[in-house]
């Protein structure tokens, strides 16, 4: 692995498979659905969160939360309650624009869609893009309701830049995210042609009797588009959770095909490689004698602090781990925690050639240089010397190169779900990520080698963690 060149067929194949996944995973809901389908094809059984679980050794399962988070696990053949867990976690969400509950807006002969900013995006990069909308729609179904995934796919929303001639401060571009980040949906002229003239037209009154009716909250053209994708009437839509995204697909680029250019690399890379690493760890017969449970967890809402039912700060992970410890002693869960380790897989900053001074001189992660271990003595990252050493042993056995990064003392530092889960569960944790540039832009930039490197590292971690921890005194 360490000797593979960026042009190696194995690297290209792994990167291409990831790009194919990425172009389908346009929202956390779509990412979770794609992962579910891969797990089912690999023989995993879906468990109901609210139902009884009958967990058996050598079996494979997954459970979802809010349709936007997923935990998958494979039970070792020698597992007994009280044994440990080998866990790799990522997150399904990325900074983006999301449609407001009441989105009807208009100005200067244009119909617009009101959006909220989600996470810490580089919002200037959302201008002059061909945007579409996707997400979850809840519709009436007799006396009940159905959840439906929708993806419009074609460009339907646009945020044009202001002409530079009209800018008073041409050197600095800091858009007002409330008033200047409003996508255009349609012109009044087009609306007139289609018999939907919105000029000086009063908004239709809201229903006094049916709070499920949201027709008056959105432009009829917009809600009609969503209803068509959902296969229902606009008046049947009860609620929606919609995300904007760039329709320009992710791609493998560069004169040597060595880069990945696309949206949501942070953190679909971590999510995809965690699940893929779990699946690849099952290719042989190592699970038959494994004493642990191998788990890949992909949470939602990391970009806004993880404080949600489907986020890493919730008790959901603890509840799952406790249910897997049923049948042992009264302290089986606590015993298992001491035999476990978690990898928090979230993207890392590569050293930027145009902003060299922003990076610490001895810690400069490079493309194709390997998975990056993230260290911060102030616990923005959860890596310790013990967990770093254990991962080094995994990397040696997998022959996957590692890099290490810290931020400068005079620089701010991001964080991950690693410290949250380490604190909440008492789990030994190491923070890692694949190197990338343009983090939180609508178009991010990474290397092709990372996908295979991370997948191989996590696969070996699942297979060897129990033995490696037992050998550490």
TrEMBL record:
Its EC number is 3.4.11.21. Its cofactor is Zn(2+). The keyword Methyltransferase does not apply. Keywords: Aminopeptidase, Hydrolase, Metal-binding, Metalloprotease, Protease, Zinc. InterPro entries: Peptidase_M18, Peptidase_M18_dom2. It is an enzyme of class 3 (hydrolase). It comes from the Eukaryota. GO terms for molecular function: aminopeptidase activity; metallopeptidase activity; zinc ion binding. Residues 193-213 are annotated as: Disordered. It catalyses: Release of an N-terminal aspartate or glutamate from a peptide, with a preference for aspartate. Residues 200-211 have a biased composition (Basic and acidic residues). One of its GO terms (cellular component) is cytoplasm. One of its GO terms (biological process) is proteolysis. Belongs to the peptidase M18 family. Tetrahedron-shaped homododecamer built from six homodimers. This is Aspartyl aminopeptidase.
């Amino acid at each position: 692995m360490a000797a593979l060149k960026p042009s190696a067929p194995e690297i290209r194949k792994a990167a291409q498979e990831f790009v194919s996944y990425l172009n389908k995973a346009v929202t956390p809901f779509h990412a979770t659905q794609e992962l579910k389908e891969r797990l089912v094809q690999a023989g995993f059984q879906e468990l109901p969160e609210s139902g009884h679980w009958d967990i058996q050794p050598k079996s494979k399962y997954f459970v979802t939360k809010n349709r936007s988070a997923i935990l998958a696990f494979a039970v070792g053949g020698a597992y007994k309650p009280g044994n440990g867990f080998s866990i790799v976690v990522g997150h399904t969400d990325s900074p983006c624009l999301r449609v407001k509950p009441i989105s009807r807006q208009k100005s200067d002969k244009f119909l617009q869609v009101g959006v909220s900013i989600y996470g810490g995006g580089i919002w200037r990069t959302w201008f002059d893009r061909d945007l579409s909308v996707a997400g979850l729609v809840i519709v009436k179904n007799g006396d009940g309701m159905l959840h439906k995934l929708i993806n419009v796919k074609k460009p339907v929303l646009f945020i044009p830049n202001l002409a530079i001639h009209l800018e008073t401060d041409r050197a600095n571009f800091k858009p007002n995210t409330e008033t200047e980040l409003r996508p255009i949906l349609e012109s009044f002229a087009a609306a007139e042609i289609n018999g939907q003239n919105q000029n000086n037209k009063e908004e239709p009154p809201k229903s006094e009797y049916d709070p499920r009716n949201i027709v008056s909250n959105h432009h009829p053209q917009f809600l009609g588009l969503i209803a068509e994708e959902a296969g229902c009437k606009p008046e049947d839509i009860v609620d929606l959770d919609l995300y904007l995204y760039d329709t320009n697909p992710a791609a493998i680029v560069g004169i040597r095909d060595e880069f990945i250019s696309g949206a949501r690399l942070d953190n679909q890379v971590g999510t995809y490689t965690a699940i893929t690493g779990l699946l690849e760890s099952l290719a042989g017969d190592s699970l038959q004698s494994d004493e642990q449970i191998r788990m890949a967890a992909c949470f939602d809402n990391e970009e806004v602090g993880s404080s949600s039912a489907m986020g890493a700060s919730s008790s959901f992970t603890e509840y799952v781990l406790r249910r897997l410890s049923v049948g042992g002693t009264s302290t089986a869960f606590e015993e298992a925690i001491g035999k476990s380790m978690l990898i928090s897989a979230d993207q890392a900053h590569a050293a930027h050639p145009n902003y060299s001074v922003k990076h610490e001189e001895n810690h400069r992660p490079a493309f194709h240089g390997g998975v990056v271990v993230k260290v911060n003595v102030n616990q923005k990252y959860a890596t310790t010397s013990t967990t770093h050493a254990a991962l080094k042993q995994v990397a040696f056995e997998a022959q996957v190169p590692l890099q290490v990064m810290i931020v400068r003392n005079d620089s701010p530092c991001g964080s991950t779900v690693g410290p949250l889960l380490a604190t909440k569960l008492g789990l030994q944790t190491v923070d890692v990520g694949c190197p990338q540039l343009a983090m939180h832009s609508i178009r991010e930039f990474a290397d092709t080698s990372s996908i295979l490197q991370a997948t191989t590292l996590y696969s070996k971690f699942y297979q060897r963690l129990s033995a490696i921890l037992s050998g550490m005194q």
